Amino acid sequence: MGRVFQPKLKSGNVSHKWVIVYRANGRRVWENTGLTEEKEARRLLKDREGRAAVGAPVLARVDKVRWEEAATDLRTFYETTGTRNLREYTYRVAHLTAFLTGRRIASIKPADVTRYIQHRQNEGAANGTIARELGTLGKLLRLAYENDKLYTI
């Protein structure tokens, strides 16, 4: 059973951020939630404990991974495997980056993809080009999932 608490700061004041403590793989894990609401911190603790109980990976950073980090991972993947031309990658990701910069990849939903399609069609892009860009987005999300940076695709 884990716990949720607000630690004391060196000044003696109580922090506004909540910390959770739980066990995963036989060891105690302390995680600063960055949350100011106790109810949200308790929800996060239950999620972490549930994942640990069923043996699923407990990924502390999964809600914090941004588009830029995932795009860099995909570029590195293509560089190391040689499966794609980097010039093609740069072209395909450029439009996605302009649309998704600053977003957390866990927050990309089907409605966002639909808005992206509409945005690209309004720019005059061909449907085949948009489909290839969405293929790159799919590969990026699959790679993030394989690298434990995303819970589900």
3D architecture notes:
This protein has 153 residues and is mainly alpha-helical. It has 5 helices and 3 strands. It has a 3-stranded antiparallel β-sheet with strand order 1-2-3, with helices on one face. Helix 2 packs across helix 5.
Low-confidence stretches: none
Instruction: Please report the number of helical segments.
Output: 5
Biggest pleated-sheet summary: 3 strands, antiparallel
Written as H for each helix and E for each strand, in order along the chain, the element string is: EEEHHHHH
The oligomeric status of these chains comes to: single chain
Helicity range: 40-55%
Rounded to the nearest angstrom, the radius of gyration is 19 Å
Distance between the termini: 29 Å
Proportion of β residues? Answer: 5-15%
Global outline: elongated
Give the rounded overall mean pLDDT: 89
The spatial strand order of the largest sheet comes to 1-2-3
- How many beta strands in the DSSP annotation? 3
The secondary structure category is mainly alpha
Summarize it.
With 153 residues, the chain is mostly helical. The protein contains 5 helices and 3 strands; from the N terminus they run E-E-E-H-H-H-H-H. The chain has a 3-stranded antiparallel β-sheet with strand order 1-2-3, covered by helices on one side.
Write a concise keyword list for the protein shown above.
single chain; 153 residues; mainly alpha; 53% helix
Give the topology, please:
Blueprint: E1 3-5, E2 19-24, E3 27-32, H1 38-54, H2 67-81, H3 86-100, H4 110-123, H5 127-146
Antiparallel strand pairs: 1-2, 2-3
